[in-house]
């Protein structure tokens, strides 16, 4: 059988259902998250020709030295974020755009920032083609988006040694921020609930491995090969 990697076929849908079953077995219970994973055609966020890998529970290179997160990690982070319909969500690290698509499927209004020009442009083109419409920003996630703050939810998808103060400031009272925190090979998935500006509840949820959150932007339009 031949597949057209630009399309979403029954075969792809079947592989996604299998992935959802696997994520359930690994302990993901949030039905709205699982439903979103069941809908978003992850294979279209990776280079063509990787059909078999697209629905395996593993991270994958997306060019410019970056990766699309492992589905389990996306599901786990999204579950911790407790996104509701209509929530204004800031994502740091657009990458492939896959996580943004998941949040949009859940009814969030998504603002997403990417520091690598090539990835920013690719994600914008792909998500638009698929009918997903977050607001895209090319910039430094360390600064967040003060002009659009406050946010109900903030999701950081790159590893920072600590959660940037600017982002905590841009979180609404009652808001939730989820981020992998740490500077070594592994980071601790950290969840902050901002009860008010001087009362932030922090909980930790196990070890993960992310690419680093880097300061500034890299105007690299023809950088690492895809
Ligand atoms: N959410 C992505 C995963 C991306 S990996 C997805 O679903 O595919 C992390 C991404 O964060 C990379 O694309 C990296 O370039 C980006 N990144 C790293 N530091 C950043 C910063 N300071 N601001 C914005 N994006 C950043």
Give a summary of the structure in a few sentences.
With about 230 residues, this protein is an alpha/beta fold.
Question: What's the helix and strand layout?
Answer:
Layout: H1 10-25, H2 31-39, H3 51-54, E1 60-63, E2 66-68, H4 71-81, E3 88-92, H5 98-105, E4 109-114, H6 117-130, E5 135-138, E6 151-156, H7 165-169, E7 171-181, E8 187-196, E9 199-208
Parallel strand pairs: 3-4, 3-6, 4-5, 6-7
Antiparallel strand pairs: 1-2, 7-8, 8-9
Helix pairs in contact: 1-2, 2-5
The chain binds S-adenosyl-L-homocysteine.
S-adenosyl-L-homocysteine (SAH) binds at residues 66-69, 92-93, 95-96, 98-99, 113-116, 119, 140-142, 157-158, 211, 213-215.
Describe this structure as you would to a colleague.
The chain has seven helices and nine strands, in the order αααββαβαβαββαβββ. The protein has a seven-stranded mixed β-sheet. A two-stranded antiparallel sheet has the order 1-2. It has a domain of 150 residues: Vaccinia Virus protein VP39 (Rossmann fold, 3-Layer(aba) Sandwich). By secondary structure, it is α/β, with parallel strands linked by helices. The chain is globular and about 50 Å long. Bound molecules: S-adenosyl-L-homocysteine (SAH).
